[in-house]
Amino acid sequence: MHVTEKSKAKDTGFEMLKSMSERRSLGQDVYEKLKQAIVEGDLAAGSRVIESRVANALGISRTPVREAIHKLERESLLRHNPSGGFFIVGLTRSDIEETFGIRSVLESYAARLAATHHRGEEELDPLDQKIHEYQLHLDQGNLKALLRTNTEFHNLLYALSRSPRLIKMINDLQDQIYRFRQVLLKTEENAGISNEDHKLMLKLISKRDLEGVESLVREHILRGQGIVLKEFDKGYIEQ
Prior knowledge:
By secondary structure, this protein is mostly helical.
């Protein structure tokens, strides 16, 4: 093969790789958009998701949509519909009990490790800032900002555990956790109690009260479970 032919073959190879990368990026973009719509409740449980309709709505081919749908199916957010297409999976009582049960163990342990490993008040300042931000959004009645700030507070707390494996295990539950937080923080009373818990968590972490903060976080999460289960039993959560 001549040098020019080798060069052309090399260029063709790079073009193929570029094309594959672009398709994967598009598929990832579709996946993230669909997942966000499901988790945030913009697409209700039971809603049908049809590959061709999603592709037409986005003005793209069906291949990246198919990739996104199958990924969401593997994550149990979508389920195949025997009559065609897929539908969004709702929550069951066992989903709620299992997720909160696992969270109560993982997150209370993360709080214990945070109390053990934090390096002083300077490292705890971001948590304090989130508490103040949360209160501001609560006073303004801004639920979306409240949800975001609540998530950021907990993520900062997990990071203080300095346990990458533990953080990954908690993050694997984030989608379900977000769905439940929407239920928990929609009333001003529950949202206010949550922030009072955050203040006490910070105080106990600062004092390095390992047992105290571990117990508080477990209680915080299991109280949330009780609230979500009541809403579920009333039929206020899509199943």
